[in-house]
Write a structure and sequence with these properties.
Elements: E1 2-9, H1 13-24, E2 29-33, H2 40-45, E3 53-54, H3 58-63, H4 69-78, H5 81-90, E4 95-97, E5 102-105, H6 111-123, E6 127-130, E7 133-138, E8 141-146, E9 149-160, E10 184-190, E11 194-195, E12 209-217, E13 220-229, E14 232-234, H7 236-239, H8 242-246, E15 251-254, H9 261-269, H10 277-285, H11 289-299, H12 306-314, E16 316-318, E17 331-336, E18 353-355, H13 369-396
Parallel strand pairs: 1-2, 1-9, 2-6, 9-18
Antiparallel strand pairs: 3-5, 4-5, 7-8, 8-9, 10-17, 11-14, 12-13, 12-15, 13-14, 15-16
Helix pairs in contact: 1-13, 4-13, 9-12
Length: 397
């Protein structure tokens, strides 16, 4: 039996931020993670450039969290994009802001930041154990399966940062839902690809990006890039549309978003009637071969009338077979509902136990929003645990 002051389960961004918040306040912190090393998902996110946060107007930033925005607002206000940048600089990692407002470490990788972070946690007395898998409670004691056999831990404050249910090989398997005993919304894929059963003429375009397009599904819209793949369509352009796509809304593309319908029709009308449809799409609309193939795939027979053809290009509808599997998704929707937690992210049914990160029922597109909310909710839960420990100490006195 191990007795600790503060126990953090999960060594991802949210859990490490909670641990740091407690340790910097002088608390004794014990962190456990079921994987062989901490921060596995953070390292994976950094493989293509670690997008820490995004610089934009606060209203626009908060809107990216959809229906969860009011819940997350106080957490994000206390640890906003500027605070994220200052925190990274405090770890010796200089950052830069790209043309779209996305913020990255200068080195683009996650490993230097994670090493510096773990070193600072160790310097502040944080103890860490890996390959410890939480298997639930036994009364007020937490049970773990470890290489050394079963371990039991009691803590004055517990922070759960167990992730959602995507990328299981990195540790987020969602198994905690079975024993946490609180109201959870079902997990669903977010920031995911969608399945499209292509015809035989599409494979030569697989791997080709579609740039400079507008996208919408239901009431949601975005501008971004997607990639054609053997399984369907993937990429940042559709991630912001995930809630509507999960509900079955068709994906609608505007292949010429910088031209209005009238101007596009006029350009199409000026091309000789002897020109093939493909030639007309290339010359007048500037479509790439992949875009032309997509138009042919989804809208044949194409209208010859310029106005009707322009309308097709401005609203090309792609029927799809729904999202790719949950385990392939970058992140998830669903998790602990707001009603299951108090204002400091403490479980209402388990006093002294807090939750943060992707365990909570929120979602956001990629682009810096995911990490910022994980950091902010981890810090918020850490502050809640501090207040709980102070309250317990005051009661003893």
């Amino acid at each position: 039996m191990t007795h600790v002051e503060a126990l953090v389960i999960g060594a991802g961004p949210a859990g490490l931020m909670a641990a740091e918040t407690l340790a910097m306040a002088g608390r004794s912190v014990f962190v456990v993670d079921q994987m062989p090393s901490p921060g596995r998902k953070l390292l994976m996110a950094g493989k293509s450039g670690l997008n820490l946060t995004k610089v934009e107007a606060p209203e626009a930033f908060l809107a990216a969290y959809g229906t969860a925005a009011p819940w997350l607002a106080p957490m994000l206000k206390e640890f906003d994009p500027e605070a994220v940048q200052d925190w990274a600089r405090g770890l010796g990692q200089s950052v830069f802001t790209g043309s779209t407002g996305r913020v990255f470490p200068d080195v683009m990788k996650a490993s230097p930041l994670l090493r510096a972070w773990l070193s600072r946690l160790s310097d502040n007395g944080v103890e860490m154990r890996t390959r410890w898998r939480w298997t639930g409670w036994q009364d007020q004691t937490l049970r773990f399966e470890t290489p050394e056999g079963p371990q039991y831990v009691t803590a004055k404050a517990v922070i759960l940062a167990l992730g959602g249910a995507s990328w299981r090989r990195l540790g987020s398997d969602g198994a905690w839902v079975n024993w946490i005993g609180a109201d959870c919304a079902p997990f669903a894929p977010a920031n995911m690809g969608i399945e499209i059963p292509w015809s035989d003429h599409m494979p030569r375009h697989f791997g080709t990006p579609l740039k400079g397009i507008g996208l919408r599904a239901g009431a949601l819209s975005s501008r971004g890039e997607v990639v054609l793949s053997a399984r369907g369509i993937e990429g940042g352009g559709i991630y912001a549309l995930a809630p509507a796509l999960r509900e079955g809304a068709p994906l609608v593309l505007d292949l010429c978003p910088d031209l209005n319908g009238t101007t596009l029709a006029q350009k199409l009308a000026r091309v000789s009637s002897k020109t093939s449809i493909s030639g007309k799409l290339r010359k007048a609309a500037g479509l790439t071969p992949a875009k032309i193939a997509l138009v042919q795939e989804c809208a044949r027979p194409l209208p010859r009338d310029p106005e009707a053809l322009a309308q097709t290009l401005k609203a090309l509808t792609l029927a799809h077979a729904g999202p790719r599997p949950l385990d392939e998704a970058i992140s998830v929707a669903g998790g602990l509902k707001e009603a299951a937690l108090d204002g400091r992210l403490m479980l209402r049914d388990r006093p002294g136990v807090f939750a943060c990160g992707e365990m909570l029922d929120w979602e956001a597109p990629t682009g810096g929003y995911l990490l910022t909310a994980c950091f902010a909710s981890g810090r918020w839960a850490g502050q809640g645990a501090l207040a709980w420990l102070d309250q317990a100490a005051a009661a003893v006195r």
